[in-house]
Amino acid sequence: MRTGAPAGHRGYYHEALQYASDDEFLSVAVPFLLDGVAAGEPSIVVLGTPSGELLRDALPARCGVGYLTGGATYDRPVTAIRDYRAMLAACVADGAEQIRIVGEVPSGGSGDTWRAWARYESAINVAFDDFPLWSLCTYDERRTSAQVRSDVARTHPRFARPGGASTTSTAFAEPSVYLSEQHPLVPDPLQAALPHAELHDPSPAQARAAVRDLGAGLTPDDLDDLLVGVSEAVTNAMRYGRSPVRLRVWSTAGRLVVTVTDAGDGPKDPFAGLLPAAPGQLGGRGLWITHQACAQVSTARDTDGWTIRMIAGRTVE
């Protein structure tokens, strides 16, 4: 039996907690977790610093709350979905009737960095709906932009309030609608210059060679991941897109930006790249692999066609 606000609710109960002070944050998060422990529900904190340390200090020692490292869990959206689903499935297999999580996605970025996590917040309304999960997605209003706060309202069906109250988000958009919206890619600073390499209708092997030649400044792991993503992106463009396919590469010390553009419309599935393709579904697997391999992936559809951009190396905001 589920307890608290989701009592009688089936599936995922997705709430946002937007707070303007430490006291407001703790007034909601602490009882949320302790009530879960008292009910015998797995209650887990997945926060970075400083909020994670603040919450840990406010909770009684050895109170039964579990902790995961926020930075490791929220490395990239698609792997967060994959790993959470595995954890939730394990909890249910162990008999959990409800799982509580206090989480915090990276919300300090801007442009396409934040948009990737906003898409994650929308997609998990579907991705986690086969589990009895109740989560508080926390956002510190002192550190989040107006754009982030707007997207939070559109991707969360509810807001958590002090005293265990929950209010409906009137701005909430169904995931199929939100994820179908198109936004132009925010140009990376490297893209202000001409690309260091440009190939037309390349084979996957030619694309990998061009990236490898310019990727000497990346770590071996980052370069290997990028090569996987680029190979999948070019294969998808040749198989499901329309010619011409254009690969562009920009390079600087420790950083590579790669775009693959084809003249097609891109995937029709709004969840493509975030969730694995359904059995028998045409396409989608390669984009899902690319999102797992590369830490920074953005896509956009415009008058030139459909573009996927992959960035490896040091972060620039």
TrEMBL record:
Gene Ontology MF term list: protein serine/threonine kinase activity
Q: Which residues form the MEDS domain?
A: 14-157
List UniProt keywords, sorted A-Z. Answer: Kinase, Serine/threonine-protein kinase, Transferase
The protein's name is Anti-sigma regulatory factor
Any matching Pfam family: HATPase_c_2
Tagged with keyword Transmembrane: no
- What InterPro entries does the annotation carry? Anti-sigma-factor_SerPK, HATPase_C_sf, HATPase_dom, MEDS_domain, RsbA-like_anti_sig
Domain named Histidine kinase/HSP90-like ATPase: which ranges? 205-311
